[in-house]
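Practice set, problem 2.
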Amino acid sequence: MITIKKRRSFTMNKVYLSVTSHNDDELIKNNFFNIPKICGKFEVVIMLIDNTNSADLETMCKNKNIHYYADDMIRGYGENNNKNFQLSYAKGDDLFIVCNPDVTLQIDQLEDLFNTIINDRSDIFGVKVYESKDLSTFSSHNRSFPCLFDPIISLILKKKLFVNNADSYANPDWIGGAFMAFKASSFQKLNGFDESYFMYYEDTDICHRAKKMGMKIVYNPKFYIVHEAKRAGRKIFSKHFLWNLTSMIKYFIKFPPSCLLGRNYEGK
């Protein structure tokens, strides 16, 4: 008698990278076009939403089999990523990762990173963020919720009082929005980002809501990205500064601070 063994079906985990372009054609080409579509047991799908309807970018994305979407609407950070989540049909244990276009991912870390996010059973996951390609400067995304005057000091004196040790594994209050990895089901339970913020504080807001719901936020410095941020929100009286200020006020009205000034935090 011949026994025929049934083959086990192999289901790949899906990872959706959500990226928004505001005339960022070259950045996106340099930072995302080289990311492999398959990383071990993970299928990587890049979801690009274009606020400028660049015909060149659309053509490049089609040639690289990258999901491109544009509809003549100008959206804020949160609304763009919510739209990408809707278009992705991500669900369950899929990973939905929000990335700034000026972020460089470390390709050799991706498979281990995706496995770690799942094995940690984290709802939101963040990594160490270097601000230069030579890895000489960094910003800590291991953060405590800001006190009332912390953001003002951050904006004016460029000294953050709400950051903690960037080299320690932690379950922080919140992580920065340049790179945020979500379990798809958790992002759905949170109803995504609060779209009333046009830019800034959406990351703080969604983490605050996640904490209130008992979700697990993980910061793991074993992994890193490079984010050469422009810091446009620190330029006094620029539109970015006004967006930053408006969002800060909105955040503190929604979540009244429990302290005036953070004094015992560490970081850079």
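Problem 2, part (b): a different protein.
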Amino acid sequence: MPVKISDFRISPNFKSSKWNELDLRAKDSLDWKVAVDIFEDRIEGRFLK
């Protein structure tokens, strides 16, 4: 069974499907907080730990 792209982890706690769900077009979107959380998790989990 092939693995779907949405199944890939982009950080220890998030999959790419979560990132793709974000709507970051508006600078006051609440999704920006989630985007920052994903970014921090990726940096910490992949490079700093």
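Answer key, part (b): The mean pLDDT is 90. The chain has two helices and two strands.
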